[in-house]
Write a structure and sequence with these properties.
This protein has about 140 residues and is α+β, with helices and mostly antiparallel strands. The chain has four helices and eight strands.
């Protein structure tokens, strides 16, 4: 399956992390939504993110070294929609500048809300606003 995903992660307390070339970034306790796409295999990408042991490759890997993935929302699509979803989330949520967006023009692909249910509501709305049909969980987490 190809498509777009949003990984939901929990940071239990305020932390400062060194995130590769982004340098140090502050993360407040709460929930984060990371927007990505996988046109070469959505299941494998999500499963990789959910594994505890992995090589640090993407910005999200740095965060997941200290945060816990709690859920995922996916939508099947033949075209890359991650930036469109990120743009929708940016309208309503705060973000970590430059996170996950080094290969596009978006300000960020990581969004924050202290409340998981509100974050999930925004994510589902963002998918639908982009014409995607979100599926929550799909056996992960």
């Amino acid at each position: 399956m190809r498509g777009t995903y949003v990984l939901l992660a929990h940071v239990p307390y305020d932390i400062v992390l060194s995130v590769g070339e982004l340098g140090n970034r502050s993360f407040n306790a709460g929930y984060y939504a990371y927007v990505g796409s996988a046109l070469g295999g959505l299941e494998k990408r999500v499963e990789r993110h959910m594994r505890e042991e992995k090589k640090i490759h993407w910005h999200i890997d740095y965060l997941l070294s200290r945060a816990r993935a709690v859920d995922v929302v996916v939508a099947q699509s033949e075209e890359r929609k991650e930036c469109a979803v990120a743009a929708e989330l940016a309208k309503h949520l705060s973000s970590i500048q430059g996170f996950g967006s080094s290969d596009c023009k978006c300000e960020s692909h990581l969004f924050y809300n202290p409340n998981l249910h509100e974050l999930l509501r925004q994510v589902l709305f963002g998918f639908k606003a982009c014409g995607l049909k979100p599926k929550k969980g799909v056996g992960y987490g």
